[in-house]
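Milestone M4 deliverable, item 7.
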Amino acid sequence: MKECRYNASKKEYSQCNEERNKKMRRIMVLLLLFLCIVHGAMAGKTWYIGGSRADVIESITADETHVVMAGYTFSSDGTLSDRTKTGRSGWITCLGQNGETLWNFCSRNSSNDEMHCPVIHSDGTITVLLYSGGHEKQQIELLRLNLEGKLQERILLLEQSTSEAEKAGEYFLSEMPESWQGGYTIVGFREQGKSTDTSWMKVYDFDGRLLYTVDGRECRNVKQAMGQKHAILLMDGQWTLCRMEQTPVRLKVLKEAKTSINHDADSEGWNGLCSLTDGCIACGWTGDQYRAANGKVTRWDTEGKLMWDKEYPDRTLWKIVPAANGYVISYEQMNGKTGLMVIDGRGQELGDLPCDITNHMTSWKDGIIRTEWSMKETMQGDEAANWDVQITVLNQEDLFLGK
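Output delivered:
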């Protein structure tokens, strides 16, 4: 590299130094890119949110200009420095297009609050579900906020006292609540004895009105994967693909899978589901998902007719979202390796992005947003652990999907 002459004029020496610094910066950028490739670092932009205590995201959604996430937090510093409460609170946060925190909203009804399923509406409001599991009662509320994070409305959906829970068994949330095109679905169960557990699923609109109930007379052991218009339910050990119909509101069974849930070589099932304009797509496993599973992706049309079905060796598939002209799927292999698999519209594998376990992801613009924990420090108990939320933004070029 060119040396700058000390006997040069001040102007010449300054110009030479600036040129040298530019070259050094270019070399450092190239070196960082090389190290990223060698060590398998993920492409895209990375943002961090959270404070010095545990911060957990349970759900994520986005529109063209906002990213909204919900979960719970113990922090009151960092990007949560505007929080005035201590202890655990339900938490919803809104980020701008460059990852800047626009606002936080925290609610604390009990020592066990958490928020789920934020939905951004066309009128500029956001709804989210707040679950509170205190010593005296359990409840689920629907909260409505404006795009500035100000609470406009709260509606009680479900409530029971601890004494009722002790008599009838756990009532709320055997699975995470989900949003669909017309409202929310909430799944739970009543434990009435080991052989007589009964499940239920309640469907609400975005104004908190109860529209539809699937109760213990219709199903047991409900497991839910909701995808805007479709649901996958595990009813009496049978995986069932359903479509949510609005007139009248009901679940229409489209497909029953031949399956076993005993985690043997013949078992199969679904973990992730995504509704599409012309049907739906789901991912999961076939084989023993805890010992020797293959990943499985199944595509159906609007009436549940099989369009295509593909397997991917040595992996269990967890979540699936559309991106550009393909799909992004989070996976885990038997050896502990985790990452994102990218496929085209017919299931052909396009690429693999090794990364830590993806907690949540959603489509955004021509790519996706994903979250994972970034644990800086581990101590005794949730409240003392320092879990920042790491957010990665990947565009279609990062995902091997072209321009």
